[in-house]
């Protein structure tokens, strides 16, 4: 399997990458990183880069041409966890890049639409979006933009009726062309090594989960098989 990852330098997809490298069935991994050497010193990823198992493309996830370079070897699965860094302020939770998820989703989906093949897409969103909004009243608008665009592009997931304000041009993304999409909705993300069992369901009611355990969930349960294909599981403890 050839896996392409956006957002692997930190957070959930760093742990997705680590778990993927422990799976011999994943023979090739392509990464889009702002700095090509960002993971060279990593004790697990660095040797995989040197051996050629991991290919690194330097670029910006919001630039369609950079994303197209990541996809030029046509992966079987693409996982994206692009997002802003949240900070707690007196005004509540704010992001350092308030629309980066949505802009990156446009770039990725447009690049995917140019491929001759259609890889499975796994997108990391957030609990509290869409029909799960009651579980977390503070839904991030940028994640709503991501989900709207991904669902618009998916054949097997309904597109929400309302266009989120952060989505400037819905028609910029092709409709109904991706046959297999998984939208992963983690609970409040925490740091730590994880190692705990997670529960996952479309209507799961949960509060928190480690980035490490979400990454393992993605790598072991979302990359292939029908368990979560064209579904949006909430993941937590």
TrEMBL record:
Top-rank taxon:
Eukaryota
Kindly name one Pfam family recorded for this protein.
Answer: NAD_binding_10
- Domain (NAD(P)-binding) spans 8-220
Extract the InterPro entries matched here.
NAD(P)-bd_dom, NAD(P)-bd_dom_sf
Q: What is this protein called?
A: NAD(P)-binding domain-containing protein
